[in-house]
Design a protein that fits this description.
two-stranded antiparallel sheet; 11 helices; 8-stranded parallel β-sheet; TIM Barrel; alpha/beta
Length: about 350
């Protein structure tokens, strides 16, 4: 482990008002999105779609790193260039999702635990050899009646911390993702309380596992009411609650917080990130940026639609969404940008 290199990579991932592009959808998730649009669910279709993304001109102006999937990190463009090289040539740092997905947590109906620690040390060595410079692990926390349980939070926080320690051992920056899901009728206050609890537990476990906080990034949810909640707070109210929660739970040593979009629309995710940076950027110990998947990709996917003739237009849409979030990092995003 080279501690300074870990710190340098973590800082690079949140520098220059850039953010991360999450393109780590599993094969089943990618196929579901293709099926909804009538796109063939084949390996070649997935490869072509991802080539469209990694070949997008000027993407590195807005995106510092791309989170890949097990299948994706091994893929190549039609000309034989690996996706890893295509990203690196575009000044985008390649990383990879390393968990094996969330499964039912025994003894805790309706709650999940993320699996993938067995054999992770060996997989991380392989991913590093393939060119990855960071890894990501996602845990999911549900708000509901008697949920989340202490057992669920503790099990997931411990797994996140062990993943992070193994990542750093392998020379990869860990991106720690404890996601409080938007599903449900919970209030903004409930989301705040649960998010604070899981973050406190995660950092307690990170300390116990001797993870170097300066050489990691946190990928949390924004503090949001449930999608089915009758009260949906304003952009500014969400920004205020999210920053307040993070200040309570995230140590200043962490260089950056890279929000997941979690099902928000691209426009709303950009607006909320913008409000946080507009109001608080100069007062915060860590960078606030993005690590969005659908909130950046979805318009491009709908335009591409599996057709080669649509690649250029899809790339323009992808770049547009990335540049909107780039502006949100500076606190300069405006709704009028969506009409361009």
């Amino acid at each position: 482990m080279n501690v300074q290199e870990l710190i340098n990579i973590a800082k690079m991932l949140v520098s220059g008002d850039k953010g991360l592009l999450a393109m780590d959808e599993s094969t089943s998730t990618c196929n579901k999105r293709f099926a909804a649009l009538g796109i063939p669910q084949t390996e070649e279709a997935r490869r072509s779609y991802r080539e469209m993304i990694v070949s997008t001109p000027r993407l590195g102006e807005c995106i510092s790193g791309a989170i890949l999937y097990e299948e994706t990190i091994r893929e190549q463009k039609k000309d034989g260039t690996t996706f890893v090289k295509a990203l690196t040539d575009g000044e985008i740092i390649p990383g990879i999702k390393v968990d094996l997905g969330a499964k039912e947590l025994a003894g805790h109906p309706g709650e999940k635990i993320t699996e993938g620690l067995d054999g992770l040390r060996e997989r991380l060595a392989e991913y590093s050899h393939l060119g990855a410079r960071f890894g990501k692990w996602r845990a999911v926390i549900t708000i509901g009646e008697d949920k989340p349980s202490q057992g669920c939070m503790l099990a997931n926080a411990h797994a996140l911390a062990r993943f992070a320690a193994l990542c750093q051992e392998a020379g990869l920056v860990p991106i720690v993702e404890p996601e409080v899901l938007m599903n449900g009728e919970h209030t903004l206050e409930q989301s705040f309380n649960v998010t604070e609890m899981i973050l406190r537990e995660v950092f307690s476990q990170l300390y116990d596992q001797r993870v170097i906080l300066e050489g990691m990034l946190l990928k949390p949810n924004m503090v949001l009411p449930g999608m089915s909640s009758p009260l949906q707070e304003t952009v500014d109210e969400v920004a205020n609650a999210t920053v307040k929660c993070l200040l309570r739970a995230v140590p200043a040593a962490v260089p950056g917080i890279v929000f997941l979009s979690g099902g928000q629309s691209g426009e709303l995710a950009s607006a909320r990130l913008n409000a946080m940076n507009l109001r608080y950027k100069s007062q915060l110990p860590w960078a606030l940026t993005f690590s969005f998947a659908r909130a950046i990709q979805q318009p491009a996917l709908e335009i591409w639609h599996g057709e080669e003739v649509n690649v250029l237009a899809a790339q323009q849409a992808l770049y547009h969404r990335a540049s909107c979030n780039n502006a949100a990092r500076r606190g300069e995003y405006k709704a009028e940008m969506e009409g361009k």
